């Protein structure tokens, strides 16, 4: 069976990093006999410019009919002033929602070679390997009612933080499954001291925990979790949290590793169909200058191989190739320190492919 992948390069540095991911896919197909085929489609600001829609119907159809989606990045200053529904970010949120990608896996792994790049002392972060499991299709991002209205002679802005039991349960189960495959420790992050919806979150996590007696469940309030992430990040293994808390904590966790340019993510539905994207944004300031780090995008390919294609061996090979180029001293601008060799986006991608090929 051939795996069908939809490629959504998107905006800013998205197309450049996707170009390097495509080289990796070609190598997997041609040298490793991986049965994979792919097709490009438009998303984000570029799609809006052509189709007046950041998620054109044809793109959604293609994504729905494929086994996995690789996404570069969306957004940029050109589209910031559009009405909300036309913004590139809305295309991304609709894609997550339409594909029912409720489980967002965001690993934060520090490569030993990059310990210096972290803003924290290297002993605090050396060997860091944690996974944030973020609920992705519910909570305040999607809750109704929402809006800005005129009330009593002034404008009022409002959003709704709402979670159904079934939504909490399914992300809970996904997180316990992840924890079971790692060190069997799961920390659920909420604000149960203030918010009823997250009191329910905590209650349901405790109920789900009964089915996973081998996993140790702990709870933290989100403010404390933010502090603990910076104070002693290695105390965590798997964190499960709501959509918005996960958005915030995953950026903090990413920074612990020194470069957001290194980190991939997976967004999965109940059947492990997934969308894979680097967690960095579209970085319009460096777009088109062969400066972007393609390693997060390439590691997103590795996650796709593991979670949606059941190709753990190939996933390991791609991850080993990334580790190899770092060991060989190659660095893009974002992770560059002396005396290492500074390379551009394309050179970095070529080096990964060369390392991968030599393992074929
Ligand atoms: C992320 C991003 C998105 C989010 C934006 C671009 C809508 O910050 O994937 O973390 O808030 O989910
Ligand atoms: Mg974010």
Could you please describe the fold and organization of this structure?
The chain is an alpha/beta fold and 360 residues long. The chain has two domains: 1-102 and 287-360, Isopropylmalate Dehydrogenase (3-Layer(aba) Sandwich), CATH 3.40.718.10; 119-257, Isopropylmalate Dehydrogenase, CATH 3.40.718.10. The protein contains twelve helices and 14 strands. It has helices at 14-32, 45-51, 57-65, 88-98, 122-125, 165-181, 196-209, 222-231, 243-256, 295-307, 312-327, 345-358; strands at 3-10, 36-40, 68-73, 103-109, 129-135, 147-151, 154-158, 185-190, 216-221, 238-241, 264-268, 274-278, 330-331, 341-342. The strands form three sheets. The chain has a ten-stranded mixed β-sheet with strand order 2-1-3-12-11-4-5-10-8-9, with helices on both faces. Strands 6-7 form a two-stranded antiparallel sheet. Strands 13-14 form a two-stranded parallel ribbon. Strand 8 (185-190), helix 7 (196-209) and strand 9 form a beta-alpha-beta unit. Helix 1 (14-32) packs parallel to helix 12, helix 10 runs antiparallel to helix 11 and helix 11 (312-327) packs across helix 12 (345-358). The longest helix is centred in the first third of the chain and has 19 residues, at 14-32. It is globular and about 60 Å long. It starts with a strand and ends with a helix. The model has no long low-confidence stretch (mean pLDDT 96). Residues 247, 251 line the site of magnesium ion.
